[in-house]
Design goal:
The chain is of the alpha/beta class. The protein has a single domain (7-242), classed as Rossmann fold (3-Layer(aba) Sandwich). It has helices at residues 16-27, 39-48, 66-80, 111-138, 160-180, 205-214, 223-235; strands spanning 7-11, 31-36, 56-60, 85-88, 99-102, 105-108, 143-148, 185-192, 243-246. The strands form 2 sheets. The protein has a 7-stranded parallel sheet with strand order 3-2-1-4-7-8-9, with helices on both faces. It has a two-stranded antiparallel ribbon with strand order 5-6. Strand 2 (31-36), helix 2 and strand 3 (56-60) form a beta-alpha-beta unit. Helix 1 (16-27) crosses helix 7, helix 3 (66-80) runs parallel beside helix 4 and helix 4 runs parallel beside helix 5 (160-180). The longest helix is centred in the middle third of the chain and has 28 residues, at 111-138. The chain starts with 6 loop residues before the first strand and ends in a 6-residue tail after the last strand. Bound molecules: nicotinamide-adenine-dinucleotide. Residues 11-12, 14-18, 36-38, 41, 61-64, 89-92, 120, 124, 148, 150, 192, 194-195, 197-200 line the site of nicotinamide-adenine-dinucleotide.
């Protein structure tokens, strides 16, 4: 696909990797519809990206809520004339172990954190993909769905909910790539290693230092490297049903 002129919907666009995608795709001539549930972050980035005003629209939407997703996809579809690319980037990370014992105290993984992680990372990806794919199929429009997975999808101590959600996103990428190929819709995932964003600010420095040391390239990825990855995924029409690992060679 040629990026120029595409209508691209990015979830979780108000921060980190999503914001890097939004800026790069605007620079490449796409019309970008960026959604996020964080009102404050949305207001801030709208100011920050005002130079892209003509090709960029910010919308508030919680991807874990079905009514929000239905309304947002309908709105973007009708205003844009048709979504060509969906980037399922929104996610949260709420680290905790399944069960741990500190002295005499037992701490169990909370069900609320489990459900909200799966809500944003997995249900959100499912709802957005379902609604956008329906529009593409009805309009007989070829398209692309990109899902953000993670190196944690293989399992990572302290990340039960996050790792499970990202493993599921990988499985959905394979499943949907086969289901949607007859409609000329590609589905691809990107699995980052570590990049410094608001998400990684939640991880203790000591742990981040250990990860950096364990990474063969001895550094984290940059937002520029992820901006280049999204360009490659959109432009390479033979890429389908695979997860691209962009992690500096890190293995847990
Ligand atoms: N940063 C990393 O090292 C890293 C590593 C592996 C995978 N990833 C993945 O990359 C993607 C982007 O991560 P990031 O580091 O830029 O995170 P981030 O926290 O900087 O940005 C995520 C954005 O998603 C939004 N969001 C979360 N839940 C939402 C919901 N339900 N509805 C709408 N918006 C919602 C947040 O408000 C935030 O603006 C995520 O899918 C993440 O799992 C990141």
């Amino acid at each position: 696909m040629n990026i120029e002129g595409l209508n691209i919907l990015v979830t979780g666009g108000a921060s980190g990797i999503g914001l890097a995608f939004v800026k790069r795709l605007c620079e490449r001539g796409a019309r970008v519809w960026a959604i996020d549930r964080d009102r404050q972050a949305l207001d801030q980035v709208a100011e920050d990206t005002s130079r892209h005003e003509a090709s960029l629209q910010w919308l508030e939407c919680d991807v874990s809520k079905e009514h929000d997703v239905l309304a947002t996809v309908d709105f973007v579809e009708s205003r844009s004339g048709g979504i060509d690319v969906l980037i399922n980037n929104a996610a949260i990370l709420l680290d905790q172990t399944l069960v741990s014992k500190l002295g005499k105290k037992i701490k169990k993984h909370s069900l609320a954190d489990w459900e909200s992680t799966l809500g944003s990372n997995l249900t959100g990806t499912f709802l957005m993909a379902r609604e956008v794919a329906e529009k593409m199929i009805l309009a007989r429009r070829s398209g692309l769905i990109v899902n953000l997975s993670s190196i944690s999808r293989h399992g990572n101590p302290g990340q039960s909910a996050y790792a499970a959600s990202k493993a599921a996103v990988d499985a959905l990428t394979v499943t949907w790539s086969q289901e949607l190929a007859p409609y000329h819709i590609r589905v691809v995932a990107i699995a980052p290693g570590f990049v410094e964003t608001r998400m990684t600010q939640r991880i203790p420095d000591m742990f981040l230092d250990r990860i950096r040391e364990k990474t063969p390239l001895k550094r984290f990825g940059t937002l520029e490297e992820f901006a280049r990855t999204i360009e490659f995924v959109i432009e390479n029409d033979y890429l389908n049903g695979k997860t691209l690992e962009v992690d500096g060679g890190l293995r847990f």
